[in-house]
Amino acid sequence: MSGNFGMVSQHPHQDSTSCPIMCLHEDIICQLFNYIPQLSDKVHLACVAPKFRDAFDNWARRQRSHSLNAQDVEQMLLPDLIVFFKVAGPFITVLMVNTASYHKESLIVEFIAEYCKNLEEIHFSNVTDEFRFGQLLSRLTHLRRVSIHCSDVEDVLNLDMESNQELEFFELINGCYTGKHLCDFPKLQTIVLRDCLLWNSGELGITLKKLRVLVLEGCCFDVMNQSLYEKIAKCCVDLEDLTFSNCDVHFEVIAQLVNLKRCTLKTYISTSNELNLDFLSALAEKRDSKLQYLNLTGQFEIGNEHATCLGQLNTLLQLHFSDNDVLEDSHFLLFNDLPQLKLLGLSWCGSVTDTGLANLICRCPQLNRMDINHCNQITNNLVFNAISCCGKGTGRSMILNVAHTKITNTMLEVRSA
Fold this sequence. Notes:
This protein is of the alpha/beta class. Among the domains are: 1-63, no CATH class; 261-417, Leucine-rich repeat, LRR (right-handed beta-alpha superhelix). It has 14 helices and 17 strands. It has helices at residues 26-34, 39-46, 50-62, 71-74, 78-88, 105-115, 135-139, 226-235, 277-285, 304-310, 329-332, 354-363, 380-390, 409-416; strands at residues 67-69, 94-98, 121-128, 145-152, 169-173, 176-177, 190-194, 197-198, 213-217, 220-221, 241-245, 262-266, 293-297, 318-322, 343-347, 369-373, 399-403. The protein has a 14-stranded parallel sheet. Helix 2 (39-46) crosses helix 5. The longest helix has 13 residues, at 50-62. The chain is globular and about 75 Å long. The chain starts with 25 loop residues before the first helix and ends with a helix. Mean pLDDT is 86; it is low at 7-11.
């Protein structure tokens, strides 16, 4: 980054009116900042003269947020670094940090902690056990979102975030987690843990009454037992959206969540493909169920009993299957009580044919949209069947969003016309 920050002096014999830019109205100067992409270059312009600094301050206050990629300032000389953070620091609300690319972490941490008091969101990537940037979490006080993507972590990170009582969102990817750092945040509504090692799962810190979204995807449990599920069911009374992988034994207790609206279950080749029948049965029997969205991803072993339970989830608005060759036409014949279903999503389900989907269209009177992707048994017959079923004087419409099927483009063009 070339050039120095600072005031631009005029020649003593130069008439100030000979420089048109110095006579610009503040509103025009503010518009200039909109066309300068880099925050560092905006600061350059702000340092031209006091009126430009005032215009920058006014412009910055009117913007919703300002982002800084810490890499953009690492190569700055110290005088430029000081000016940059003094001018722009108070307005920065979002920070991105690639922790693998720094040689003066301590200096940058000090500047951020001192001048960026209004930071609300931090995204860390390539985090290792030497997580010096983690000091920011304890020195800032207005953080609402924290995302940490680890690259080589063998121990639990020290995440002292207690000073940020406004925290609403926490994400950890490929790290180690105990949960003890997330127990005392009254506004925390979303926890995302992907590909993490969860230590001491019996004491996992999910004592969060306000939690609404919980993602536990691809995580390895040090102690896998029903205590984790029981803790979620007991403590997360407001939970509305759950994503979980490896949902086999003891998972049925999750059906007790009274406010659950969205549920995504995933299975991988390395884990059990069992789809907990007791969980589905409990949901089907639940009279006050609020479940509207169900997504089953992976090669779940779906049998007739599973399909029968799925077909009784009468509050569902959306049902999605992906990456499952076990799902077949006969299962759709058991979907007998889905009166509110409006959307079906199928992706990479190679055993489903036009016949199965035609049966579903006839059985679900509110179904008006199908998203179908990479299902090679779906042909033009689905379009004909949909027209036949929807054209029986009911005024029903049907949207087909298809890709990588055997439905021809010509068929779609003709029918959409």
